[in-house]
Amino acid sequence: MSQLKRDLRLGLIATAMAAVLVTAACGGTTRGSGQDAPAGDRSTGQANPDAPLTEGLDVAFLPKQVNNPYFTVADGGGKSAVEEFKGSYKEVGPSEASASSQVSYINTLSQQGTDVIVTSANDPNAICGALTSARQAGAKVVTFDSDTKPGCRDVFVNQASPEGIARNQVELISEQIGGRGRIAILSATPNATNQNAWIELMRQELAKPEFSGIELVTVAYGNDEDQKSFQETQGLLRSYPDLKGIVSPTTVGVAAAARYLSGSEYKGRVALTGLGTPNQMREFVKDGTVRSFALWKPADLGYLAAYAGAALASGRITGQEGETFEAGRLGEYTIEAGGVVVLGPPSVFDRDNIDQFDF
Please, is 151 exposed, middle or buried when counting C-beta atoms within 10 Å of its C-beta (0-12, 13-18, 19+)? Predict the structure, then answer.
């Protein structure tokens, strides 16, 4: 990156930070702040789908938390994509998935003149100011796995449609408990955008006549921490001894819950499903603790997010509905309403197919 480019970005950062401070002092947001801007306002130029991918792009992945097995795989897919289009890759992030823990990393990436920031948001609002400043300084922002408000980023790469995930989770638990009984949800953090969307849609699914025999008694939060998720599972079973099943739509939570159930009196009595990786869940499927669970391929999610960022930074797309771009080995994708790109439907893993997967 040239010194001139870096100097220009630093100057823009200072201006953007001053604007953020003025907005914060007023105690509200405006259309120009980007936090509530509609998807149609994110474009500042005309897309050129034939533009070559820029080489040497600085691409940074900022997961909800580092050392999380799910994001290790997802970000690894992003790294593979960045290497393909001859960019520079790095991963940064907090060790705990709290609402505001990502802000300082975004500010640093912006100050460094990063071309593309790919992040999974711990909170839909907490990082918006920092992302807005980064975009004003020239960075393209792609959210993946968990979104911010649409006005805070250029594109959101969704692992699957929220409706499809919610339906999948409800159908799996219903099948495993015979369509009747009390269930609980073990989620990640209380503010996680994707988790909350799925939970609300699961409630809507459970309200349908075909699931009238199932009662959702509570939602617990393990904060995407292994030990806390383990303890929350224990607490659920103490509070609801007649619980028939647990749905944990988070890879950390479902693995921790499986570990607790596998060594407890509830093994085989309480069904567990959720979203997990085959490598995490293999032993629990084989020992009978878990019958089946689901997930998309997280490496493909990161790979797609990296290519979306490169397409934005190269001017191939601007984030508008209907634009298309090529994502390497995954082929062509179309941007949907709200600047959303959908990877595809989740896969179900069970004893019959789990050894076919290694991630």
Answer: buried
